[in-house]
From TrEMBL:
SUPFAM superfamilies: SpoIIaa-like. This is SulP family inorganic anion transporter. It is a multi-pass membrane protein. One of its GO terms (biological process) is transmembrane transport. The chain crosses the membrane at residues 22-42, 49-71, 91-111, 123-147, 167-188, 200-218, 238-261, 281-304, 324-351, 372-404. The keyword Membrane applies. InterPro entries: SLC26A/SulP_dom, SLC26A/SulP_fam, STAS_dom_sf. It comes from Corallococcus sicarius. It is found in: Membrane. Residues 18-369 form the SLC26A/SulP transporter domain. Keywords: Membrane, Transmembrane, Transmembrane helix.
Length: 524
């Protein structure tokens, strides 16, 4: 195990699997089945592609992964990205990109760089998922109302009033009913009824009503033979190789970040074996490669299904594996039942998923921490341009915010009895050197100066700038009374040293608060 935890995973007994993991796997299966179909719909892919990803993710990552209770499969967080790639490259080439992205993940896992994904600012992650949620809502609400989604967010928004004025009878009724059931389910008191997965109730309820009304609406289409539904990948041709490379890297990086953050969040939910992030990343890569080769969607670890797994009493990795076995059995034996599910019912489920990805609690927390601008920039980029642009803008804003914070050096000057008293506080780094130099340049040559260096951060550039000014001031006839900067440097290191060990111990859980609350806000 890596540094996230060293607890060994206990070998389960058959009795333990039967008593805890078997019922938990059924709960996860009932949660995952409608979501796998819905995410495929949002991705513009065949419905079977979502089910294939659910099966491959459950079995491969379940057996190989480094987080025993994490459940993997297709996630709403990649739906918008995949939709764009399918529109640009076609489904078969997108499957090839998924497969190659998996190989990239395997390489990253072998290089043991999994922890570097945790360096991504939580504000960017929250903003990315919120932007994806908005795009899902804007697109799928058209299907809920009985129409068709447009090509981008602006067109979806522009056409929405016309869609509202031209409702499509039964399709609109079923979509709104599904959405209403999902919203109402959240407010049920805890009890036996609440334990039934809301997505299952909404999809089964909407499907039953459609059957009773004999509604003439578009429905899920699955091939009678599951094997015949498998779409083999194909490589791009000509100028499409550049877009293909972008798709590979984008899928690998975003899927890896989402999986690893979900893995860390899952660790917070139980007291069993701790996560091995490098092993998890490698397993995710193998699963994505296999999923792409057999025509499946990209796979990530999904915290909400994992939370349902843990809450249902799962103890070992077999619950995740068995949920995929039940899904495979459904596809091969009962796949015909899916043809009764109206597409507008799945769209209602997806609108609810998208709404949950925009979490007001996250916005309030980020505002309190001063990170709301990073969040809003990321959301605007994802919605207004595309997912990669939004992530890039968010990361750029996060870096600029960090540089701004590093430049927050405060230089206070006053004169008392012909003595210039200077107090330097805050962060004295290379970013703040120009501000420091400007303030010190206003002190007359030959004057007596007392400098109080009370900084909490001091880098080499700040050290040299202050030392150089003091030397120059003395050479021009002035006097400088200042604690030796070497002592300031040593005192700063001494303050950091005792905290090093506890900080290292807490480091794996530091992003978890953000990630776990993030994940709990989205039904994936």
């Amino acid at each position: 195990m890596n540094s996230v935890g060293k607890a060994a995973e206990a070998k389960p007994s058959f009795k333990e699997i039967l008593a805890s993991d078997l019922p938990a796997s059924l709960v996860v299966f009932l949660v995952a089945l409608p979501l796998c179909m819905g995410i495929a719909l949002a991705s513009g892919a065949p419905i079977m592609a979502g089910l294939i990803a659910g099966v491959v993710g459950g079995i491969v990552v379940g057996l190989m992964g480094g987080v025993p209770l994490l459940v993997s499969g297709p996630a709403a967080g990649l739906a918008v990205m995949v939709f764009g790639f399918i529109q640009e490259l076609g489904f078969a080439v997108t499957c090839a990109a998924v497969a190659v992205a998996g190989l990239v993940q395997v390489a990253l896992g072998a290089l043991k760089v999994a922890r570097s994904a945790l360096a991504i600012s939580p504000a960017v992650i929250h903003g990315m998922l919120a932007g994806i949620g908005i795009l899902i809502v804007l697109g799928q609400v058209h299907i809920v109302l009985g129409g068709s989604p447009q090509s981008n967010a602006w067109n979806n928004l522009r056409e929405l009033p016309g869609q509202v004025m031209d409702l499509h009878g039964p399709a609109t009724l079923l979509g709104l009913l599904t959405l209403g059931i999902l919203i109402a389910w959240q407010f049920l008191p805890n009890g036996r009824l609440k334990k039934v997965p809301g997505p299952l109730v909404a999809v089964v309820g909407g499907t039953a009503i459609a059957a009773l009304l004999n509604a003439d609406v578009a429905r899920v289409q699955l091939a009678a033979d599951a094997l015949s539904a498998i779409k083999l990948p194909s490589l791009p041709e000509g100028a499409a190789w550049g877009a293909f490379a972008v798709a590979v890297l984008s899928l690998a990086l975003v899927a890896s970040a989402e999986s690893l953050l979900s893995a860390v969040a899952t660790d917070k939910l139980h007291t069993g074996a701790r996560a091995n992030l490098d092993r998890e990343l490698l397993a995710q890569g193998v699963a994505n490669t296999l999923s792409g080769l057999v025509g499946g969607l990209p796979i990530t670890g999904v915290i909400v299904r994992s939370a349902a797994n843990i809450n249902a009493g799962a103890k070992t990795r077999w619950s995740a594996v068995l949920h995929a076995v039940w899904m495979l059995a459904f596809i091969t034996l009962l796949g015909g039942l899916a043809s009764y599910v109206p597409l507008t019912v799945l769209a209602g489920l997806l609108v609810h998923v998208g709404l949950k990805l925009v979490n007001l609690a996250h916005i309030r927390e980020l505002r309190h921490r001063g990170e709301l601008p990073v969040y809003l920039i990321t959301v605007a980029g994802v919605v207004g341009i595309n997912l990669l642009a939004g992530i890039g803008l968010g990361l750029g804003a996060a870096i600029l915010r960090l540089l701004w914070q590093l430049g927050q050096v405060r230089v206070e000057r006053q004169v008392s009895n012909d003595v210039h008293q200077v107090c330097i506080s805050g962060a004295l780094t290379f970013v703040g050197v120009p501000k420091l130099s400007t303030a010190l340049a206003q002190i007359p040559s030959g004057s007596k100066v007392e400098v109080d260096v009370a900084v909490n951060t001091l880098d080499h550039s700040g050290f040299e700038a202050l030392e150089s000014w003091a030397d120059t001031h003395r050479k021009t006839g002035g006097t400088v009374v200042m604690e030796p900067l070497e002592d300031v440097w040593k005192r700063r290191e001494a303050r950091a040293a005792p905290a090093a060990e506890p900080a290292a111990a807490l480091a794996p859980s530091s992003p978890v608060h953000h990630v776990s609350t993030l994940a709990s806000g989205g039904a994936q």
